[in-house]
Amino acid sequence: MPSNRAIRTRKDLLDAAGRLVRKGTTPSLEEIAAEALVSRATAYRYFPSAEAVLAEAAVEIGVPDPKTLFAGIGDDPAARVERVDTTMHDLSLAHEAELRLMLVQGLLRKPDSAVPARQNRRTPLIDAALEPARRQFKPAALANLRRALAFFIGTEAMIVAKDVLAIDDAEARKVKRWAIRALVEAAKSRS
Amino acid sequence: MPSNRAIRTRKDLLDAAGRLVRKGTTPSLEEIAAEALVSRATAYRYFPSAEAVLAEAAVEIGVPDPKTLFAGIGDDPAARVERVDTTMHDLSLAHEAELRLMLVQGLLRKPDSAVPARQNRRTPLIDAALEPARRQFKPAALANLRRALAFFIGTEAMIVAKDVLAIDDAEARKVKRWAIRALVEAAKSRS
DNA sequence: ATTGAAATGAGACGAATGTCTCATTACCTC
DNA sequence: GAGGTAATGAGACATTCGTCTCATTTCAAT
What we know:
2 copies of one chain form a homodimer. Chain A contains 11 helices and no strands.
């Protein structure tokens, strides 16, 4: 079992990595060690590479659980999905640098790698958003809808908006709201 | 002006980089030089880094021009957008490795970098697809539609499907077709 | 064939990366 | 407080990356 000191050292490294990334750099493990006030050798004892630190630091970004996320909102699926999108959008903005680096990790992983694939934090939230209105949708359409929404919600959507479309934040939110409404409506059974 | 020999060397390096990337590696400039049968020094004379070679190699991936892409297809906007998506999807599959590396380049570029941002190949195609039916749409909705479609068409969409949703190719195409239909319909003025 | 310039190859060099060893420090138990 | 173990720091070492120099090769024009 790791000692208190070891736990603290590990945390210091993760915190230091977060600080450096937020500052806009892509730090080496040596720089992370210096920021954390530990020696280079110690840093290499805890993490094999700077990428490993960054990847783990990004995981720390908290996604709210469905319970609190949907508190005080009705059953309207579009409104609930929009709340998911707003939350994820805010998170993407607040941690853009870390998330970009995490995305890079996923993009470069070997196709046959034994390491676990990207974790998927958005699908559970999307499903929770649609759950109360499940009966309003045609089953086949619901299967399409929950996947289609994943293209608009999350880090990749931020990348498309900023790097490809080069639109500002308000515009991106507007486009996504419009699309979410359109997709949710399209999935509803004609009533 | 560059001599024929220089042009050939440059091309050899780009070809070599493409071969190595397709083999699944993330080659260093030294490895690219070896594959191209030139010395390391020569490789550094033509490109400042392996990333630069890879980025330029990715640009070579040909996107068809609208003229030929829409040959023999009617004015129906959904059908035309679907053809854009099918084409881009095929391209993404055929050049997945190169495109992943190109995406990494874009993700890591400095926010205030002087280098040109990501080139956007999909928007002109989307606009060309919607052009003949422009009158069918409400102007405000058209502005949203052309941007919303960009989230489904292109490399990032492939990443979401494979890495995040972990769905197979046929399923991805199905979801995207459904979403494209839904979005195009939603943008039409009630008639 | 000869000449001259462009392109190349071989290798030295400094910086950064990752691994390893060994002495020293900090912490826990008694 | 003393002793033992875990954690750390300092630095040596091999490797890779990017830059540079200089001798050699290739090519085109005569």
